[in-house]
Design a protein that fits this description.
about 200 residues; mainly beta; Jelly Rolls; 6-stranded antiparallel β-sheet; 5-stranded antiparallel β-sheet
């Protein structure tokens, strides 16, 4: 398994397995405790594993937790997703950076999202299944979901770019781009007690 740092997000890592392919299909390791430990991640910290299934075009996130946040190990187990991570850690050298990835079932790459980063994705296939390992039990009261909490501001993925749209009361886009992305990041920081 190849481990690649994500330069734009300090502490984020991509774990790229080496599938064994033959006429039957393929086999690969999607989790290896020794590889995680060698990368500086406590493999025993993942206390909950979850799976989401999304229809084509569904956007989930950006999600982040208040307080210390939560670390995630994310993999698209079926289909494909456009995945986004935003660094909201004020003490991080990559603070306010964001990075995107296409996670696919034919590659089975896993993305480690450090605690304090916002995470979300858009389904590129119908369906798309995403598997998560998280290092804290789910607590609805500590989650911040901008689409529910920020009136009129939504994060969407357009093509291969994160776009943030302000919507009128009729749902029509008013503006988008880096200015709105900064507003979304500042909103997330305030909601999480980081700004």
């Amino acid at each position: 398994m190849d481990v690649r740092p994500v330069p734009r997000i300090a502490g984020a890592l991509l774990f790229i397995p080496a599938p064994h392919v033959d006429e039957r299909g393929f086999f690969c390791r999607t989790f290896d405790a020794d590889v995680l430990r060698e990368a500086g991640i406590d493999d025993a910290a993942f206390v909950q594993h979850s799976l989401s299934r999304s229809a084509l075009g569904v956007v989930r996130g950006l999600h982040v937790r208040r307080g210390d946040g939560e670390a995630k190990l994310v993999r698209c187990s079926y289909g494909a997703v456009f995945d986004v991570v935003v660094d909201l850690r004020a003490d991080s050298p990559t603070y306010r950076n964001w990075e995107s990835f296409e996670l696919r079932d034919d590659e089975q790459a896993s993305l480690y999202v450090p605690a304090g980063c916002a995470h979300g994705f858009q389904a590129l296939t119908d369906p798309a299944d995403v598997s998560y390992g998280i290092d804290r039990a789910h607590d609805r009261n500590s989650c911040v979901i901008p689409a529910q909490a920020m009136a009129g501001m939504h994060a969407l993925i357009v093509g291969s770019e994160l776009q943030v749209f302000a919507h009128s009361k009729h749902g029509l886009p008013l503006s988008h781009g880096e200015g709105c992305a900064r507003v979304l990041i500042e909103f997330l920081e305030r909601r999480c007690g980081r700004g």
